[in-house]
Amino acid sequence: MGSDRAPAVEVEGGVAACAQLSDDDTIVLVGNKPAIQKALARQKGPQDKIEIVHANQRIGMNESPVESLRTKPNSSIAVLAQLHAEGAIEACISAGNTGAFVSATQMRLRRLRGVHRPGVGIMIPTLHGPVVLCDGGANMSCRPRHLYQYAIMASIYMETVYGVKNPRVGLLSVGEEDEKGTDLVRAANGLIKRDSSIYFIGNVESRDLFHGACDVMVCDGFVGNVVIKLIEGMSGGLIRDILNNLKDLTTSTPELRQIAMRAAGQTLETYDFNQHGGAPVLGVGGIVILCHGANSCLGMTNAVLLAHKYARHKVNQRITERLTQDERTGNG
């Protein structure tokens, strides 16, 4: 219960997701029980698949992740991670404090076998299809082998969840040439290139993200988070500006205005992060889905469905099998 409009968004999204889940699935809402019950009372959908676990503490967005987890052991984030670690739930989803959620899940769930550092795989919609960027902010101090594993894990995620066969992997740099970039990028380039099982197209630039150059874009968490925040801010501003201009141009022609607004609405829907729910933390020993704090009810519903799909396609099992193979062969 950590979104900007908690618990209403989580509750409504959870109720809506119930209709699309299997009969034996259950949604567990973790947070202030009276507040959740009040929000549930306003919902008209079926609630027989919903359970509530009370947590009387909440970690704010501006609180220190580690310190808040230490001083608030009964926060919804801490309780959620513990429930997953105990096997009471099979996936955990949060739109709350990202640092606290990632820290709690990594402490409780540890890493999958063979994984050096988990990374966030963020799906970015483009006109050429989805692109998964990894890492989106979990690991700010990367080593070459971390980026190499992000290429593997994000490729598995892209292939199993989004159905992209043999996804093309690009390494984010300041130029396409192998010798360009930081020491980290150059070393990672060499590691990824040596693995013939990865469809590595080499270095890519940030402008390639929306030009269909690759299906997976690999970078460290600092760079990835900057890219995501820039896209979020710039796309919102550009789309609002375009909509305003369309209104001015089509004021005198109702038919043209209707067509223009329909096209604008379709574009907004394509690039709305709520359509994709959230982003998995790849490499952690569980199913952990990060959501935007501004997620709508639709976003929370889609986050539940993403977690369900992640489990159904056994993404973590595939990652473990692949990296265990690397251990045997000495790669990475």
UniProtKB/TrEMBL annotation:
Q: What is its EC number?
A: 2.3.1.274
Alphabetized InterPro entries for the sequence: FA_synthesis, Phospholipid_synth_PlsX-like
**Keyword Aminoacyl-tRNA synthetase attributed:** no
Which reaction(s) does the protein catalyse, per the Swiss-Prot or TrEMBL entry?
Answer: a fatty acyl-[ACP] + phosphate = an acyl phosphate + holo-[ACP]
Entry's Pfam families?
Answer: FA_synthesis
Q: What class of enzyme is it?
A: transferase
User: Which compartments does it reside in?
Assistant: Cytoplasm
Q: Would you tell me the Gene Ontology cellular component terms? A: cytoplasm
Which ranges does the record mark as transmembrane?
Answer: none
Q: Name one GO molecular function term.
A: phosphate:acyl-[acyl carrier protein] acyltransferase activity
NCBIfam families xrefs:
plsX
Kindly give the PANTHER family that the UniProt entry links to this protein: FATTY ACID/PHOSPHOLIPID SYNTHESIS PROTEIN PLSX, PHOSPHATE ACYLTRANSFERASE
Q: How does it assemble?
A: Homodimer. Probably interacts with PlsY.
Kindly provide the name given to this protein in its UniProt entry: phosphate acyltransferase
Q: Which organism is it from?
A: marine sediment metagenome
Source species taxonomy: unclassified sequences, metagenomes, ecological metagenomes
